[in-house]
């Protein structure tokens, strides 16, 4: 059985950053990537807006990926392409299927999960109506357009105003399609304001908040859809249903960490993030298995993915080469209070130094205060003009201040 | 050239019929209006192999169901079709005892194994029965099968044995000339001495074309939820409520492919109305908790809707009384899937009364079949990868489907030319991402293997192209 | 004109008017909003990212090396439609210098995906 210090599952931004960080610590590293090349979803994100934090300049997705790929090429990190990890077993056994080597059993001192996320589908939201050609996730349409060079519709409606949906509204418009409107269930967009302006407003594409698609019509090709405002329980008000002729509905209705490989393992998943529960090193509840990037929790900036994955990769290498890190023996839970949907990591070890806690709010709040507290003491607080679920927030705590469960909450 | 037999309709019944006839030295042609076989009611039903306890004794339904059940369990083994003999429960609340007793009475008359269980006994078979369930009828011979894979396996074996399977050939007219049927389709005219009408929802219309008897057909639509594989561990058996006049009710069942389904509703509809209605989904949401304690609608990966057609209370399987040489099957609603092998056996007998059916000496009863990845041992898989590296490349990550399986589906005896046809054969795109990740690659494989340009690759029937415009070639005015 | 500020999730609704050469921004909360309002009114610019055909019939992603005036975006796209990138163009390859004399080059930003079986 071939042995590596660190096996990284996934060669997107998370996997590449984790592999580089592990390599820098002196580990023998393998990256398993199912696509024909590294880069993951970045390869299809040809728009600009990546790297402002990490590289201090604005790059497109493929350019951002290329920077990491070039760094990887200068290391001894081994990359398996077209290969899919089928299972992660006890003691770091990874079963992988690849065109070159068939089914192989590999062994690692530590495993980093970096498989990314998938999109919620029409089926997942139980979309009513017919099931014709013309209903796709925004990411599938993005791949068809930016990688394959084809448009999947001429007259398009987009359900959901997540960033991918907004980006695709602009992409399809720039390639000559007509985007009729964007329909958003919530009273606000989960996307960045910049994308609302530069992807919709620039092209006069209307957005209907607090609306949803009620049914799709047409068979075998989509001919249009009905949509309606929703009431306070997010149920459509059918008396106000309206029809739009269109041949394509793109869905941008959420991303889900793709942790399917973990079913049957002892790794505890968070019900809120659908990713693993981790400590500050991004180690899951199974020692030696780490998780980072969108498979851990869905990020809004790839820069944060790279940063997080470097933590995971470095820690995985340390674990593989030197065993579990020395701590003071204490483990403290990180919980959430009012206004906060989740905080990550979910547990931190006692000790020295600082620890970053990332969190997302459960709604849009204006003029609030972010508070982190421990045993009734406020460890950190800051007034904020606005917080929104679409933007991940960060606080930094000094570990020496922590002697019990930490709670992150808002004062609203 | 005049065939011995034309079978109209490539649903489960038509495919089972041609599969039977393929064993004899007769020339047979299957005409299917859709882009593939198994695209009508056969692709959108519950996939239940019914035991046969609820059919009115003495009916064709009772006869074919019981015989079909026995035939089906051996056929799926032979053909390698996913199926699971998991038994079924009819779960009744307090007050439902009389209903169960009536089903048990019918079971005995039909010769079907069934027993009435207390709640405690039933929980041993299905631990997740709802609180309100007091007793249940257990039928150990029931189970589930992949209905479209069964139909495709029939059609493939028939094609291997010389049956001509012609898709996108909807019958537009039919007449009789000098005792020979002339069947018109957009793909041309076909002639045969005998015609078997297996047109399902269109059976009455096909009969009318040639002046045969017509019937009032009642169409009912049924919505379903399909749940993620992760729910499979929570459902051990097929759970029915007590049947009503509208049908067998909304069930909870494992699928042969390892998912779980909730459904169907039973609501009057037009013959082609396969749209999912929100009220239908709501009815399922209300109904499932009455029999099943762990509804998991949040694990839904797909909703769908099928239309079944009924003619009176029983199946119609008989020679036409008005047109000599026409054999009619109609009103094949539930338990039509289970009954199909037995219906086909009987239709074969009817054909045999007109044409001598001599066994084919070179008949291939077990055509070579491409295995599924999960069926292979490690050594078998590695031997395949060594010969063809495409066995090592997973295209559909959710259902673990390799490129080699997809290529084989594209070149199968009844070839998969569309994305949905590939999906029905090998499950690529059937999983939780619903093809979001793999359908572009599936399109490329179809394109490369069959030499069809990407812009002409379709999702399924008719003009269902996916890549509607090429970037930079798009004429802005065209949009 | 009306727009919303993109600097933070607040998304302050801005109204920008001009009278006698004096630009007035209303609706902003912080100075970033004021500056943004003025620049969006006077000289809004955008980086254009799109695809270009390659000499072997494929596509590669391209971008303008710097933002171009917003109202010239579709002119830039029209020009790019007429251009062909070399099939082997690598990231950073300039396909057109100073497109439409707007001071921006058209730069290749990605590579085509290799075929899995070739």
Structure overview:
The complex is a heterotrimer of chains A (412), B (479) and C (118). By secondary structure, chain A is α/β, with parallel strands linked by helices. Chain A is built from six helices and 28 strands. Helices cover 19% and strands 35% of the residues of chain A. In chain A, helix 1 runs parallel beside helix 2 (61-73) and helix 3 (138-148) crosses helix 4. Chain B is α+β, with helices and mostly antiparallel strands. Chain B starts with a strand and ends in a 9-residue tail after the last strand. Chain C has 118 residues and is an alpha+beta fold. Chain C has two domains: 2-42, no CATH class; 49-108, Roll (CPE0013-like fold), CATH 3.10.530.10. Chain C contains two helices and ten strands, in the order βββαββββαβββ. In chain C, strand 1 and strand 2 (13-19) form a beta hairpin. The mean pLDDT of chain C is 93. Classes of the chains: A alpha/beta (412), B alpha+beta (479), C alpha+beta (118). Chains A and B meet through helix 3, strand 11 and strand 15 of A and strand 18, helix 9, helix 12 and strand 23 of B. Strand 11 of chain A pairs antiparallel with strand 23 (469-470) of chain B, so a sheet runs across the interface.
Radius of gyration of chain A: 22 Å
Mean pLDDT of chain A: 96
**CATH class division of the largest domain in chain C:** Alpha Beta
Category by helix and strand content of chain C: alpha+beta
Query: Tally of extended strands of chain A?
Result: 28
Please state the overall shape of chain C, judged from the principal axes of the Cα atoms.
Answer: elongated
The oligomeric state of the chains shown is heterotrimer
* Mean pLDDT, all residues of chain C: 93
Low-pLDDT windows of residues of chain A: none
CATH class bucket of the largest domain in chain A: Alpha Beta
Strand content of chain A: 35-45%
- The CATH architecture classification of the largest domain in chain A is 3-Layer(bba) Sandwich
Largest sheet of chain A: 7 strands, mixed
Number of strands of chain C: 10
Specify the number of helices of chain C: 2
- CATH-wise, what's the superfamily of the largest domain in chain A? FAD/NAD(P)-binding domain
- Largest β sheet strand count, sense and barrel closure of chain C: 5 strands, mixed
Instruction: Calculate Rg of chain C over CA atoms.
Output: 19 Å
Key terms:
heterotrimer, A: 412 residues, alpha/beta, FAD/NAD(P)-binding domain, Immunoglobulin-like, seven-stranded mixed sheet, 6 helices, 28 strands, globular, C: 118 residues, alpha+beta, CPE0013-like fold, 2 domains, three-stranded antiparallel sheet, 2 helices, 33% strand, elongated
């Amino acid at each position: 059985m071939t042995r590596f210090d660190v096996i990284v599952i996934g060669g997107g931004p998370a996997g590449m950053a984790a592999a580089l960080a592990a390599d820098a610590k002196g580990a023998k590293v393998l990256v398993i990537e199912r696509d024909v090349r590294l880069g993951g979803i970045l390869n299809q994100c040809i728009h600009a807006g990546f790297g402002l934090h990490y590289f201090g300049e604005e790059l497109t997705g493929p350019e951002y990926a290329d920077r990491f790929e070039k760094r990887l090429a200068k290391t001894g990190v081994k990359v398996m392409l077209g290969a899919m990890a089928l299972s992660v077993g006890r003691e770091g056994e990874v079963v992988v299927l690849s065109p070159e080597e068939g089914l192989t059993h590999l062994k690692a001192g530590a495993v980093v999960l970096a498989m990314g996320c998938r999109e919620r589908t029409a089926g997942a939201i139980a979309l009513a109506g017919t099931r014709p050609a013309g209903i796709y996730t925004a990411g599938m349409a993005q791949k068809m357009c930016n990688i394959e060079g084809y448009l999947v519709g001429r007259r398009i409606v987009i359900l959901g105003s997540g960033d991918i949906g907004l980006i695709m509204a602009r992409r399809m418009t720039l390639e000559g399609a007509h985007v009729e409107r964007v329909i958003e269930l919530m009273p606000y967009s989960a996307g960045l304001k910049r994308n609302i302006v530069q992807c919709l407003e620039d092209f006069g594409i209307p957005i209907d908040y607090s609306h949803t698609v009620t049914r799709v019509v047409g068979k075998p090709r989509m001919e249009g859809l009905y949509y309606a405002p929703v009431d306070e329980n997010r149920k459509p008000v059918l008396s106000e249903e309206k029809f739009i002729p269109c041949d394509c509905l793109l869905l941008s209705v959420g991303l889900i960490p793709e942790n399917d490989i973990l079913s049957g393992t002892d790794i505890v998943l968070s019900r809120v993030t659908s990713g693993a529960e981790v400590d500050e090193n991004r180690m899951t509840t199974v020692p030696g298995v780490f998780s980072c990037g969108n498979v851990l929790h869905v990020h809004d900036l790839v820069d944060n993915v790279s940063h997080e994955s470097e933590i995971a990769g470095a820690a995985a290498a340390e674990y593989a080469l030197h065993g579990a890190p020395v701590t003071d023996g204490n483990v403290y839970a990180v919980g959430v209070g009012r206004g906060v949907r989740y905080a990550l990591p979910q547990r931190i070890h006692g000790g020295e130094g600082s620890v970053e806690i990332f969190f997302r709010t459960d709604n849009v709040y204006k003029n609030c205060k972010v508070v982190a507290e421990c045993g009734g003491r406020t460890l950190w607080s800051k007034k904020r003009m606005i917080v929104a679920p679409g933007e991940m927030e960060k606080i930094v705590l000094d570990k020496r201040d922590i002697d019990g469960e930490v709670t992150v909450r808002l004062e609203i | 050239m005049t065939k011995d037999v034309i079978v109209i309709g490539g649903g489960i019944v038509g495919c089972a019929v041609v599969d039977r006839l393929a064993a004899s030295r007769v020339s047979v042609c299957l005409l299917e209006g859709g882009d593939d076989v198994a695209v009508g009611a056969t692709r959108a039903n519950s996939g239940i192999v019914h035991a046969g306890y609820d059919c009115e004794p003495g009916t064709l339904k009772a006869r074919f169901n019981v015989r079909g059940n026995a035939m089906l369990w051996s056929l799926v083994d032979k053909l390698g079709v996913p199926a699971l003999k998991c038994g079924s429960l009819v779960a009744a609340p307090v007050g439902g005892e009389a209903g169960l007793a009536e089903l048990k009475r019918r079971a005995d008359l039909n010769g079907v194994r069934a027993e009435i269980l207390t709640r405690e006994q039933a929980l041993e078979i299905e631990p997740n029965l709802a609180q309100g369930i007091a007793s249940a009828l257990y039928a150990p011979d029931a189970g589930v099968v992949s209905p479209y894979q069964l139909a495709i396996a029939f059609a493939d074996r028939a094609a291997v044995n010389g049956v001509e399977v012609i898709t996108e050939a909807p019958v537009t007219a039919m007449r009789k000339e000098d005792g020979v049927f002339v069947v018109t389709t957009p793909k041309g005219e076909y002639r045969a001495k005998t015609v078997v009408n297996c047109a399902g929802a269109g059976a009455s219309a096909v009969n009318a074309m040639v002046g045969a008897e017509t019937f009032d057909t009642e169409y009912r639509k049924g919505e379903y939820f399909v749940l993620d594989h992760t729910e499979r561990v929570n459902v051990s058996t097929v759970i029915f409520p007590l049947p009503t006049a509208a049908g067998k009710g909304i069930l909870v069942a494992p699928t042969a492919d390892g998912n779980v389904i909730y459904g169907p509703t039973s609501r009057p509809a037009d013959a082609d109305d396969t749209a999912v209605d929100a009220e239908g989904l709501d009815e399922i949401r209300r109904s499932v908790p009455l029999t099943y304690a762990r509804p998991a609608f949040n694990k839904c990966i797909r909703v769908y809707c099928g239309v079944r057609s009924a003619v009176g209370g029983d199946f119609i399987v008989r020679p036409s009384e008005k047109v000599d040489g026409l054999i009619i099957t109609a009103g094949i609603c539930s338990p039509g899937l289970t009954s199909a092998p037995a219906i086909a056996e009987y239709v074969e007998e009817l054909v045999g009364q007109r044409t001598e059916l001599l066994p084919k000496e070179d008949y291939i009863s077990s055509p070579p079949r491409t295995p599924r990845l999960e069926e292979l041992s490690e050594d078998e898989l590695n031997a395949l990868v060594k010969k063809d590296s495409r066995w090592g490349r997973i295209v559909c990550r959710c259902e673990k489907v390799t490129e080699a399986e997809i290529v084989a589906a594209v070149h199968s005896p009844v070839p998969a030319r569309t994305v949905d046809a590939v999906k029905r054969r090998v499950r690529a795109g059937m999983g939780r991402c619903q093809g979001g990740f793999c359908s572009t690659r599936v399109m490329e494989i179809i394109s490369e293997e069959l030499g069809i340009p990407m812009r002409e690759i379709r999702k399924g029937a008719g003009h269902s192209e996916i890549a509607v415009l090429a970037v930079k070639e798009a004429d802005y005015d065209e949009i | 004109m009306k727009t919303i500020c993109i600097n933070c999730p607040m998304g302050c609704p801005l109204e920008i008017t001009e009278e006698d050469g004096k630009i007035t921004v209303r609706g902003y909360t912080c100075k970033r909003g004021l500056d943004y309002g003025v620049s969006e009114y006077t000289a809004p610019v955008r980086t254009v990212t799109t695809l270009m055909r390659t000499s072997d019939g494929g596509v590669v992603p391209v971008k303008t090396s710097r933002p171009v005036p917003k109202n010239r975006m579709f002119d830039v796209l029209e020009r790019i439609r007429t251009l062909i990138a070399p099939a082997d163009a690598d990231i950073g390859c300039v396909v057109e210098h100073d497109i439409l004399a707007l001071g921006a080059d058209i730069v290749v930003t990605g590579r085509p995906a290799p075929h899995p079986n070739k």
